[in-house]
Amino acid sequence: MIENDKIVLAELASLLASGQVLNDEQEHVLSGLLVKYPEAHAYLQHVIESGTIETPINTLKLEIDKEWTDFQSRATVVTDNVPVVKYNWRRWSAVAALLVALSVVGILWFTKDDKPAYIVEDMVYGQKNDVLPTNEQARFEVDDKFVKQLGMEDLGKSPGTTDTNNRRYRVITPIRSSYSIKLSDGSKVWLSPESKVEYLSAFSASERRVKLQGEAFFEVAKDPAKPFIVEVDGLEIKALGTAFSVRNYTEDAPQVVLTEGRLQLNTQTAETVLEAGYQADIVNGRLRAEESMLLEDALAIKDGFFNFNNKDIKTILGEINRWYGVKLQVDRPLDTKKYTGSIERNVTLGKVCSVLKDLTGYQYLIEEDRLIVK
Fold first, then answer.
1. Into how many domains does the chain fold?
2. What pLDDT score was predicted for residue 103?
3. Long-range CB contacts for residues 355-364, cutoff 8 Å, separation at least 24
4. 51, 197, 311, 312 - which has most CB atoms within 10 Å?
5. 348 and 292 housed in the same domain
6. Are residues 57 and 178 both part of a single domain?
7. What pLDDT was estimated at residue 46?
C-alpha cells in the first residue's frame, strides 16, 4: 500500500472509530481503498473493534518542510494574483492525519460508550445490534513471559528468530481471535480462537516437536530426517510432510483429520497409521480411526469458513461462541439433528444468524453481547 493511501485509510478509520458518519465523498474514497487493497478490510475491522489507530507512517523518515511545500503547491493555484483554492479531500486528510500523528506520537485512542467496540448497530438483519467477527491477532510469549501482541503486520510470519538457546515460544489466540504463523522449518500453523501452540525456537537435530491446546491446521514442511510431532492430551501425532487438523478443546476428546499424506498416531496403549481422507478420535480412552466426513471442516480453519457439515446445533453454537465471543442463552430444547451448510467467517454474527435460521428453523436474537436461541 502506498504511503498516501495508508494515511487516508488511517484518517477514515479514525472517523469511524470515533463514531462519525462518513459523507458521500469519504464513502467513495473508502470503497475504492477497500477494493484496491483487500488487506484493508481486516485493518478497518481491527480499528473499529479495538478503538486504536496505529499511524501507518514512519514519522522518523518524514521531511516536514517538503510535505508542507508539496501540500501548498497542490492546494492553491494563483491566477491573476487571485488565489483559487482547489479542495482535495484526500490531501487535506493526509495532512490532517500527518499533523495528528506527530502530535500524539503515532497513536490515537477513542472511547465509545461502555460497550465493546465489536458490538455495532444492525441495519440489515432486524437485530437489536450486531457483532463483528474475530480479529487476526495473538499473544506471543517467550519462556512464559509476554513479548508482544501479534497483529496483521506479523500474520503468516515467524513471530521470533531462531535461537540456539532453545527458548520456549508460545503463541496464544484468545476468544474472538485467530492467527497463522510460520515455524522455523517452514511449516505453517493456523490457530482457531482459544488455542495455544508451544515449541522451541530451534528444533532439535532429530525431530520437530510442538504442543497444541485448542484447534489448529498444520501444513508440515517435508524433512524425512526430522519427523514433525504434535503433542495433544494423551495423543502424539507424527508426520514427515503432510497437512492435517487437530481439535483438542478441554470439553472434547482429541480429534485428528488428515487431508494430505500419512500420519502415525500413538497413545499410551495404542498405535495406528492414518491415511489421507481419514480421521482419528479417542473414544472412551481408545484410539479409533475411520473415513472422515470432516475434510471441509479441517480445511475451513485455514480458508476462513464455518462448515456445519454433520454437526448438531450445540456444536455449531459452541463454535460461534468462540468466534464472536458472545454469551449463549438457549431458551428451548436443542435437537440432535445433524446440519450441513457453510458460510465465510469474516461476516457479522447477524449474517450467521440469518443463515442458521433458514438452516435450523430456530429463532436467533442478538442483544448486546448475548445470543439468544428460541
1. 3
2. 38
3. 356/316, 359/308, 360/313, 362/313, 362/332
4. 197
5. no
6. no
7. 64
- Could you tell me the CATH number of the domain that includes residue 335? 3.55.50.30
86 and 37 belong to one structural domain: yes
Task: Give per-residue burial for 277-291: e unless 16+ CB within 10 Å, then b.
Answer: ebbbbbeeeebebee
Quickly tell me which residue has 438452516 as its cell. 359
Q: Which of 78, 112, 146 is the last residue of a domain?
A: 112
Which tens digits make up the pLDDT trace of 287-340? 999 999 889 889 999 998 888 888 899 999 999 999 999 999 999 999 999 998
Neighbours of 130 (CB within 10 A): 21
Q: Is residue 119 part of a domain?
A: no
**β-bridge partners, 271:** 266
- pLDDT of 165 reads 78
**Contact status, residue 312 vs residue 337, Cβ threshold 8 Å:** yes
C-alpha cell at 137: 491477532
Provide the pairing of β-strand 177-182 with 135-136: parallel
Expressed as residue numbers, the domain containing 81 is 3-112
CA distance linking residue 32 with residue 15, whole number of Å: 17
Confidence of residue 342 (pLDDT cuts 50, 70, 90): confident
The CATH number of the domain holding residue 264 is: 2.60.120.1440
CA pseudo-torsion sign 361, 175, 116, 102: negative
pLDDT in tens, 161-193: 777 778 999 999 999 999 999 999 999 999 999
Q: How far apart are CA 232 and CA 211, in angstroms?
A: 6
What's the rounded Cα separation, in Å, for the pair 167 and 180? 20
**How sure is the predictor about 56, in pLDDT bands with cuts at 50, 70 and 90?**
very low
